[in-house]
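Ticket #4471: structure export looks truncated?
Reporter: QA, pipeline team
Priority: medium

Steps to reproduce: submit the single chain below to the structure queue and open the exported record.
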Amino acid sequence: MKTQELISTARLMVDNHKGILAMDESFPTCNKRFAKLGIPQTVETRRAYREMIVTTPGLGEFISGAILFDETIRQKTKDGIPMIKVLIDAGIIPGIKVDTGAKELAGHPGEKISEGLDGLRERLIEYYQMGARFAKWRAVIVIGEGIPSKASTIANSLTLARYAALCQEVGLVPIVEPEVLMDGSHTMERCFEVTEEVLHEVFNQLYIQGVLLEGMILKPNMIVPGLSCPKQESDNKVADATVNCLMRSVPAAVPGITFLSGGQTSELASARLNAMNVRFKSKLPWELSFSYGRALQQPALEIWLGKEANVPEAQKALHHRAKCNYAARCGEYNSKEIVRIAHQVKKEEN
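Actual output as written to the record:
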């Protein structure tokens, strides 16, 4: 195990108030988002979209790492430069999604298990040789009537731990992502209960498998009500519940926690991260950061629409959202003020 390299990389991933850009959408997910906006679902369109993202000027000021999909890590810009080199030259650490998706958990209707362990060691070695320095595996936990079951919690936690151990064996920092989905009408209290149970089991399995906690990153959900729950909570209540849950579940040895956005709007994801850092930053053993996908990319995607002429404005939108979340990490995010400044800058440019 490359212990010191793992520790150094993990710290860099959450250093200087930066966060991680999750641009690892699979073919079906990326195509689905394109289809909603009338963008052609082709290899070339996906390549052009990824190029728009990685070539955004100044992105490395606010982004420490980028999670890629297998297709993207092998692609080049229109000028023939590997995407992974563009990121490295911008000071952004390349990472790679390695699970192959969530499938039905046998014997447990309505529950999921992520697959991809078969042949993973060989894939990780290849990705490391290509320049990746961290990886990501997402486990899906569903809240519903009578679920999640203990079987689901244990199976997903063990799979995450085995993946993490394999990553560290070859020198890749594992991002461990046990996502309790926002789908449903459950309350914030139910989300807290399930998330705490899942995190306890995840760290139990990580310990059993000998995973170096100082050389990993946790990517959890925030503690929020289900999307269809009639009672939605304030940013401060979400911040309090989330930090309380993490303090009860996550060892201090873990260097950083990078939240997933999980279906939250761009503004909510930033505001809730900001509330946590305002209220608790000086009291926590780990950094609280972000690893957002849609919450960073969606505004840019809606501007881009697959048209090269829209690239500059789309890149400005991506840069803006990255800056917003950088501010949230500092506890300095003010959605109204940031929107006002953005409008003023656009007015001056015109």
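Status: closed, not a bug. The export was complete when the record was re-opened. Leaving a note from the reviewer for reference: The radius of gyration is 19 Å.
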